[in-house]
Here is the input.
Amino acid sequence: EHTNLVIRNARILSSDGDRIGDVEVGDGKIKAIGDVPATTGAEIDAEGYVLTPGGVDVHAHIEQMSGMGLMNADTFETATRSAALGGTTSVISFAPQSAAPSLAHAVEDYAGRASSGAMIDYAFHIILNDMKAENVVDDLTALIAVGHRSIKIFTTYNIQLSDRDICEVLGIAKEAGALVCVHAENDGLIGWTKDRLLASGKTQPKHHALSHPRLAEIEAVERLIRFAEYFATPVMLFHISTHEAVNAVRHARARGVPVWAETCPHYLFMTDAVLDRPGIEGAKWMCSPPQRTTADQDALWAGLSDGTLDLVSSDHAPYRFDESGKLSNGKNADFSKIANGLPGLEVRMPLMFDAMQHGRISPMEFVTWCCTNPARIHGLPRKGDIQIGLDADLVLWNPTKHHAYGANDLHDNVGYNPWVGKTITGYPETVFLRGYPIVKNGALEGKVGQGRWIARPAPGVSTTAAPAPEYVEATT
Ligand code: DUC
Ligand code: ZN
Ligand code: ZN
Ligand code: ZN
Here is the structure.
């Protein structure tokens, strides 16, 4: 292992642009970029390779219980191993209040699991589901102060907060300095629709998509935008899937509401057609919100391009296609009894890199959506870019290598690849975490427990610094 090395003649993609050059790494940090003089240390000739920042995936469920009380399939070891092999070097997963008798204990518990298992650097979003629990406000304030600078709340999934409690959370977040992330779908619309579908015998995975009407997302997104506006404190809208929600965010930003938004590869590259398979097979692709239409895909890409949507996360939610996971209620279970989610930590970066290779997105967009913006918005100032002084989290891509995804070729613990059949061009062959090669020529080199917790500073974005001027109204 060496944390001092020079990577030479790579095509470097960073927030500064796209150029050929050398990157020198010293003591785990980026020491020099450009024309680095000869050294006596380790050198890599990266001619023909593309060097990007390590991926920053700010939305992944690891060792977490589903809404149905099912432990998901990945440990910090298996999840971060797959992330590393896909070119991701930082992850933000979740510490749910419900995992322990107190919020402080829940975060401590997750900190212990991650510190012994994680192979990449990590932080946690604190999931709040009960604002009446003893000490919750004190615990939360203290946790934020030591660097747990984000909160996740839901408007559905049996852990929704009331509007009043959402106000409490936004008030505390504003005061203490934390970003509030939201799963925004209207619970009543989903519940009513689901019951009608089941009552009429529409019980298959493909009916899951109908049970999450697009208006459920639109309503909750619009509501949370109004809350962000009232409190003038930042809100991050997770996994936007509909064109109407993109428009709502676009209008909100134009009038200066501090709202950010995310989408995911399974909304960009899949439609609800993935659910329509014989029997229960479609369960492998079930997630919430569900995949939508090609028109929504177009709106998501347009929203990313004009800056309405800020970043792409995996929403990695790993369940095996067996009794421990998707089939925990049997092969004949109706859609409402099947765990939601698909694995994504390992494929997010390659899928987006492939889109870049095929001219679908620009090199700058790849870096911005997968690395720079996630780091900037979620408060990871040493991550997500290639700049002197930042952590040397780097990915060397072989841009000409093709890989056709197989039925079970990911390195998480899920046992199936929802992207089977898709060929990606460009492979993350070598991956550095703080200068250490955690993946070398496609093989895992990282050590369990090598990842470190990232204490995050208070959000640097003042609530009056409206993002509006950067964003133009689109004519859709
Ligand atoms: N949707 C979520 O919001 N979280 C995890 C899995 C899913 O499908
Ligand atoms: Zn969610
Ligand atoms: Zn999620
Ligand atoms: Zn090709």
Notes: Confidence is low (pLDDT under 50) at residues 461-476. The longest helix spans residues 214-231. The longest strand covers residues 394-404. The pocket of zinc ion (ligand 3) is lined by residues 59, 61, 315, 317 (CB under 6 Å).
